[in-house]
Amino acid sequence: MMNNKGIQFSKARTAGNSVKVFTNTPADYRQLVALLDSIKRPFFTYQLKEDRMDQRIIRGLPREMSIDDVKEDLVSQGIADAEVQQMTSRTTKNPLPIFLVKTKMPEKLLEIQRLAMLMVSFERKKRSTEPSQCYRYQRYGHTQRNCRLAERVPQQ
Question: Which InterPro entries does the annotation name (predicted)?
Fold first, then answer.
């Protein structure tokens, strides 16, 4: 089916009960995902590097500041695709004075020195040392967002 659709791949190998396919280009990757979706074949995938958003931490804002205000200020400074979240304490679940920004334009963040008339600093988000895990199936190596395995049957 992949040859009929013109999907080029560099290698394919078995891994346990599944097959790993490595495509040559992002366009081939997207075609393969669409093909597997159309034939309703369960699979999971990794996110392409160009589809990933860069994550930065904003420090210097008060914890009472709303996410909408932060996003609005970022948009006014030229970062239209920003996704903003406020970090919370793991133990108390209270909001922290730290905001997470996801964007595909991290170089523009370096130019920003003020948000809401306050001096701010941007830092890279520290990567987790733990392997990625799908919370849907509890399998390691992929995330729930990229999981298209068959629906899990609830345990009784």
Answer: Pre_C2HC_dom
Residue 89 burial by Cβ neighbours in a 10 Å radius (0-12, 13-18, 19+): exposed
Spell out the domain ranges in the chain: 1-41, 48-156
Question: Does 3.30.70.330 match the CATH number of domain 48-156?
Answer: yes
* Cα gap 5→1, rounded to integer Å: 6
Q: How far apart are CA 119 and CA 123, in angstroms?
A: 14
Alpha helix stretches (DSSP H) within the chain: 2-5, 26-38, 67-76, 106-109
Q: Is the pTM for the entire model greater than 0.90?
A: no
- 109-129 per-position pLDDT tens digit: 888 888 888 888 888 877 767
User: Per the structure block, which two tokens stand in for 145?
Assistant: 């967002």
